[in-house]
Amino acid sequence: MTQASIGANFPRGVDLLRNPLLNKGTAFTESERDLLGLRGLLPAPVRTMEQQALRVLANFRSKPDDLEKYLYLIGLQDRNETLFYRFLVDNLEEAMPIVYTPTVGKGCQFFGRVFRRPRGLYISADDKGKVRDLLRNWGHKEVSVILPTDGERILGLGDLGASGMGIPIGKLALYTACAGIHPGKCMPVMIDVGTENEDFLNDPLYLGLKRHRLRGQDYDDLIEEFMSACKEIYPNALIQFEDFANQNAFRLLEQYRHDHCTFNDDIQGTGAVALAGLLSSVRVTGRKITEERVLFLGAGEAATGIGEMIAATMVREGMTESDARLRCWFVDSKGLVVSSRTDLTHHKKPWAHEAPFVKTLAEAIEVIRPTTLIGASGMPATFTPEILQAMARLNDRPVIFALSNPTSKAECTAEAAYVHTEGRALFASGSPFPSVHYQGKTFVPGQGNNVYIFPGVGLGAIATRSKEITDGMFLTAAQTLASMVTPEELATGNLYPSLKRIREVSGRIAVEVAKEAFREGYAQVPEQTDVVALVESLRYEPDYAKYA
């Protein structure tokens, strides 16, 4: 690093140490300390990144609980983003449950108490008419990913209002760690329109607007102002909707998906990762995907998003759309979703089939006789021993997905799934479970986490400057993910690749999604572009030498 290479406006001294994107801490060299006015502001010894990372790992593991680990890593991210991402990339299996599910849920619940430094953009209901000015205040001229939430449906925890900001922060950290999107090009956004959470409304430490949620046209006008401002100021940015409640998630996706490069991860990302697990399962069961009968517990955005992806894949395999939909059945809070019901919301009606109405999941299993049972209900322990035993009675290899997050909301544990099916279940969950030892065999439960999908889809769309993100791109991502599961992983019961390979997985998905963008005519880069080289050219590597 020389004076000529850093430029006149490069921060110096304390200002540099307070810039997390540029700070190297004790790794600044002797010459850099002289050049940048750091002499005396750091301990004398110069440390390598490897030495720093060892200290981080030791401190991380010394913390007494997961929330303390979460706070430690957030503090590191606020001080030195390069070191934070080096640690995260190198220890993803251990650190991802801390920076994201399940611990991020607890971080959100305590957000007002642990808040230390603003990270992300806050747009409130009081900012109507000023959203463009707020976006310009962000300070970064180039943004690749914008991730907004209004905090109404955070994981399975419900309405956390402005405390839901932990979700965009955590997900964008995974965009960087898994896909290599530069952290300086990521924008977390909290659209604070109030909350219905009475605990927060009465909490003096709550950081959001203390009023009931904005609804109706005023809400829609604020979202429209935000979306149009994003398109004007950051025209090439991907916008990922996150943790919006059902009444807004579906209609906002339909309203904006053809005019912006946008998707809803709770609908499309969840659908794709669950589909990938099902595609992996048929490699074990020997069934065709068109032979699956899938019963869902839950009929919200996650469950119906999965249903859409499964049905679309069956259509690709030659089924009619109506026949494909008949392979997917749903149980909501009132019972089996059937055509005779008059209380169904818009997004459930395509899944209302002719059948006798039954009220319970146990009854629905006997009526539908599913090969696959998928939980996306947020209702813990609803896959009881009796439910799991019924699935094992009907199937030699029952497929059981307990996808609700965080772990405390899972429909069953991995151990329960294996024990109550005599070790025959093909199991996946939304949050991680440890390996299970049963009857002399070790099972490694797969985590059907959206992190396998959204970073790669996002990178592929960004690389091609895709005008839209289509369901076809998510189908391609799911098929690519399933193809990367090794026979050795399948033999242990794992339906997903090891998280140790997540950067490889995300890169492969990005390339295939980019190719799909060209096939569908949405790419805005020259057709002769070397897609592999293009994707790799955009990938950030957390290494001090990259900007030395």
Task: Give a topology summary.
Blueprint: H1 3-6, H2 13-17, H3 30-35, H4 49-62, H5 66-79, H6 81-90, H7 92-99, H8 103-109, H9 111-114, E1 121-124, H10 131-136, E2 145-149, H11 166-179, E3 186-192, H12 198-201, H13 216-233, E4 238-241, H14 246-256, E5 262-264, H15 265-285, E6 294-297, H16 301-316, H17 321-325, E7 328-332, E8 335-336, H18 361-368, E9 372-375, H19 385-394, E10 399-402, H20 414-419, E11 426-429, E12 436-438, E13 441-443, E14 446-447, H21 454-464, H22 471-483, H23 487-491, H24 502-520, H25 531-537
Parallel strand pairs: 1-3, 2-3, 2-4, 4-5, 6-7, 6-9, 9-10, 10-11, 11-14
Antiparallel strand pairs: 7-8, 12-13
Helix pairs in contact: 5-6, 5-8, 6-11, 11-21, 15-16, 15-22, 18-19, 21-24, 22-24, 24-25
Task: Give short descriptive properties of this protein.
Rossmann fold; 25 helices; alpha/beta; 548 residues; five-stranded parallel β-sheet; 3 domains
